[in-house]
């Protein structure tokens, strides 16, 4: 099955192609994105929208940052929350001495017009008291993965990609494709 990865992010496309070791096509489409905390709900709707536009099997991805003390908020709404209050504001949402545990989860949905297949990867960690690191991609400066003493932003791209939720989700998808598709 040839998949069309609907993303405007060239780095995500390269990473997916490398992990999957398969032929992918990239399409940059303006997709409707429902506002939901669960990234799995978001990717199903994005996949449905993408399929309606290209009429071929598609793959879409979304990532959320889930803060335990806040009941999983902001989750997949992280982009909007960061836009409103920034990484510093997210750090301030949690008081000093408060539980700062969180997890990051990537959901990938493959949709062929009949069936949704959702794959996910998760990394547990904590929200730092303040942003750290110069790799300022999204919320990387405020998320410190469990078992590490640096935030994603303080890691090299290779270090981050070796443990990232996106790499785990694509590895799960690869396993499915290798077993389900000749």
Q: In the residues, how many domains can be counted?
A: 1
The helix content is 25-40%
Named CATH architecture: Alpha-Beta Complex
**Largest sheet data:** 7 strands, mixed
Given as residue ranges, the uncertain stretches (5+ residues, pLDDT < 50) are none
Q: Residue-averaged pLDDT, rounded?
A: 91
Order of helices and strands: EHEHEEHEEEHH
User: Span from first to last CA?
Assistant: 8 Å
CATH class label: Alpha Beta
Could you tell me the number of beta strands? 7
Strand content: 25-35%
Oligomer: single chain
The radius of gyration over CA amounts to 16 Å
| Total DSSP helices | 5
The outline comes out as globular
Structural class: alpha/beta
Give me the CATH fold name: Maf protein
List the helices and strands and how they pair.
Blueprint lengths: L2 E4 L3 H11 L3 E4 L11 H16 L3 E10 L6 E2 L2 H16 L7 E11 L4 E12 L15 E3 L11 H7 L1 H16 L2
Parallel strand pairs: 1-2, 1-3
Antiparallel strand pairs: 3-4, 3-5, 5-6, 6-7
Helix pairs in contact: 1-5
């Amino acid at each position: 099955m040839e998949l069309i990865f609907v993303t405007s992010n060239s780095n995500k496309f390269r990473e997916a192609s490398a992990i999957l070791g398969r032929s992918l096509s990239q399409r940059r489409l303006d997709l409707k994105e429902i506002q939901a905390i669960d990234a799995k709900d978001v990717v199903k709707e994005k996949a449905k929208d993408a399929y309606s536009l290209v009429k071929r099997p598609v793959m879409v991805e979304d990532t959320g940052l889930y803060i335990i003390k806040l009941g999983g908020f902001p989750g997949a709404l992280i982009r909007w929350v960061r836009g409103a209050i920034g990484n510093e504001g997210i750090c301030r949402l949690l008081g000093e001495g408060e539980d700062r545990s969180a997890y990051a989860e990537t959901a990938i949905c493959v949709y062929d017009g009949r069936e949704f297949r959702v794959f996910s990867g998760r990394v547990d960690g904590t929200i730092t008291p303040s942003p750290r690191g110069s790799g300022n991609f999204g919320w990387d400066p405020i998320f410190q993965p469990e078992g590490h003493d640096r935030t994603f932003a303080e890691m090299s791209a290779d270090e981050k990609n070796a443990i990232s939720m996106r790499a785990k989700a694509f590895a799960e998808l690869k396993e499915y494709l290798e077993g389900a598709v000749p």
